[in-house]
Amino acid sequence: MSTVHAYAAEKAKAPLGPFDISRRTPGPNDVQIDILYCGVCHSDIHQVRDEWGGAIFPMVPGHEIVGRITAVGDQVKNFKVGELAGVGCFVDSCRECAPCKSGEEQFCQNGMVGTYNGRDKEGQPTYGGYSTQIVVDEKYTLHVSEKLDLKGVAPLLCAGITTYSPLRHWKVGKGSKVAIVGLGGLGHMGVKFAASFGAEVTVLSTSAGKEEDAKKLGAHKFIVTKDPEQMKAAQGSFDFILNTISAQHDYNAYLTLLNVNGTMVVVGVPPEPSLVAAFSLIGGRKSLAGSLIGGIRETQEMLDYCADHNIVSEIEMIDIDKINESYERMMKNDVRYRFVIDIASLKK
Ligand code: NAP
Ligand code: ZN
Ligand code: ZN
């Protein structure tokens, strides 16, 4: 066991502050990682505030983790000390159910073990990447290229895979007319991937001031959703909508923007449910679907794609003592486009 510095919320809605945790001594299949950077996902806020229910406290959030390997167990085959590594949203799963066997561990029928706010197989709470070190089974550890700017790689472990996976699953590419709703951490990665796959990309945003950035990220068009005229003009125009909105909103308003046979995939997880009218779907044979992060194999595929195509997240680096302020700023849609914690600030 080793004692590791971390930042935790002691109870729901409490501000985060310094907290020490124990990490296990690496077992035969484990990789020990010295964490360098950790992204700040809106899911961290939902969970720290216990907006989805069942949260475990004290909570050390963080599931966009990159760092360098400092030790490996004697059975570890694919990782070496000194290499870069990444950890995403889960650190274990049953490994036996059909989704686990097919490489979609995020849908484990016995419940994946979240990187934080979960319980490991011994029933102990898991702690995430707002900490200086983590120990993870090599099967749940990702390879990270030395080619990319590491700070911008951290958000790929959640925001990256959560947008890459549905765009691939629904075969978005050349000829697709795609809308990305919400230009935050997930949304800006969605724009980069959809543009990189050859789609015509429109950003739908409540923040008129993000238009120039959206175009720089690869969007071709920008719609301010608060403007009824712009929304009306866009009706029936998209094949695929990726909805990343974190707060409650009206799904029907976006479903009207789909073309015949179009699909809206929800990845944002507002705490409150939204009512969907049958009429929003039947006229135009529209689909409403959801998607959750991605499996280990696809996460590695996404990281390799990013290394090949020089794709990273646009980040604002923060010291750990700015974390509570960062949450406040994210609640005001004031993030361009992902906060990333410099974990060196936790080692001081
Ligand atoms: P974020 O960086 O805070 O971005 C969310 C964006 O949504 C905001 O920047 C804003 O964009 C838009 N928005 C916020 N409130 C809105 C409202 N009331 N009406 C319309 N638009 C609004 O959050 P994130 O980290 O990208 O996460 C987004 C959501 O995805 C969260 O709910 C998170 O928990 C969830 N998530 C899901 C998965 C999954 O696997 N499905 C994985 C990670 C995260 P504009 O300023 O452009 O309007
Ligand atoms: Zn996340
Ligand atoms: Zn399973």
In short:
The protein has 348 residues and is of the alpha/beta class.
Short key terms for the protein model shown above:
348 residues; alpha/beta; Quinone Oxidoreductase, Chain A, domain 1; Rossmann fold; 2 domains; seven-stranded mixed beta sheet; six-stranded parallel beta sheet; 17 strands; 25% helix; binds NADP nicotinamide-adenine-dinucleotide phosphate; binds zinc ion
The topology string of helices and strands comes to EEEHEEEHEEEHHEHEHEHEHEHEHEHEH
| Low-pLDDT residue spans | none
Q: Tell me, what's the shape?
A: globular
The span between the termini is 21 Å
CATH C-level class of the largest domain is Alpha Beta
Oligomer: single chain
Q: Roughly how many Å is the radius of gyration?
A: 20 Å
Query: Could you report the average pLDDT, rounded to the nearest whole number?
Result: 98
Characterize the biggest β-sheet: 7 strands, mixed
Structural class: alpha/beta
Kindly identify the CATH topology of the largest domain: Quinone Oxidoreductase, Chain A, domain 1
Number of strands: 17
- Name the CATH architecture of the largest domain: Alpha-Beta Complex
What is the number of helices?
A: 12
| Hetero groups | NADP nicotinamide-adenine-dinucleotide phosphate, zinc ion
